[in-house]
Design goal:
Residues 1-26 are annotated as: Disordered. The chain is mainly α. It has helices at residues 11-27, 34-42, 58-71, 76-79, 88-110, 146-161, 179-200, 202-207, 211-227, 233-236, 240-246, and strands at residues 2-3, 123-124, 128-129. Helix 6 (146-161) packs antiparallel against helix 7.
């Protein structure tokens, strides 16, 4: 994530989010359940097929538990915490996949408005710009339009979570030693989609009455990545003010490699 020459705060966006929350709840209440969330975005446009867990597997069971906790409208910060008796790797894997599906749905609603003309670079305001690299087709950090960057990002995440060597499906197959490092990379890159959507497509979200849904998903994601130390403070910085208002207070967060 390279700094750009000028600085732009997200205060304006934060103010709009607050105003939208107070006014939109009267005409479009916040998402009340996972089913409501999925139904709302499925009525729009899905960017790519969603990944599903196989019924009867441990991950399917954990997925259902995660969804149930989300639908219960319990404390989101508490719902992401590792349940007693479950393994850290399985729990993180399930949430990574669930959030990939949700972010895919959210971005699908604004793809028609995110074009090379409207978003010639993958940026976060005027302070940060993201360059794509994957070690294969793009071995060096490459500047590109936001829609191309996000398409490559979601394809890369899709490939990663469907690689059984990196995300094992069966209980008797151990997770690789670099699993958490992989999840940190995935989580950080997916966070950039939130950053771009909030800063550059907030008006579109407002017009689609999608802000309450995105806010709910973002809060859940923020609590998840900070609970398990998956995204660095530097990556979180572009939405710091927004996060502070949506989550009321931001606890002291120490990221370690």
């Amino acid at each position: 994530m390279a700094p750009k020459s000028k600085r732009e705060t997200v205060g304006g966006v934060v103010g709009q989010v607050q105003q939208q929350q107070s006014s939109s709840e009267k005409i479009f209440p916040p998402a009340r359940s996972m089913a409501h969330f999925i139904d709302f975005f499925n009525r729009k446009k899905t960017f790519r097929p969603k990944k599903h867990f196989t019924p009867g597997t441990l991950k399917y069971s954990l997925h259902k538990r995660a969804v149930a906790s989300f639908e219960s409208q319990a404390d989101l910060k508490r719902t992401v915490q590792l349940p007693e008796g479950e393994t850290l790797e399985d729990w993180i894997a399930v949430y990574i996949v669930d959030f990939f599906n949700r972010i895919n749905l959210i971005y699908g609603t604004i793809t028609d408005y995110c074009t090379p003309a409207t978003c010639p670079t993958m940026s976060a305001g005027m302070k940060y710009e993201y360059f794509w690299t994957d070690g294969c087709q793009y071995k060096k950090p490459t500047r590109m339009p936001a829609n191309q960057y996000i398409a490559l990002l979601l394809d890369w995440v899709d490939s990663t979570v469907n690689d059984q060597k990196q995300f094992p499906v069966f209980v008797d197959v151990p997770f690789p030693s670099n699993f958490l490092a992989t999840c940190k990379k995935v989580a950080s890159r997916m966070y950039r989609v939130f950053v771009h959507i909030y800063i550059h497509h907030f008006d579109t979200l407002t017009a689609l009455s999608a802000v309450p849904h995105v806010n709910l998903c973002y809060k859940h994601y923020y609590y998840f990545v900070t609970e398990f130390n998956l995204v660095s403070k530097k990556e979180l910085e572009p939405l710091h003010d927004l996060t502070e208002r949506l989550c009321q207070t931001i606890p002291r967060y120490v990221y370690t490699e």
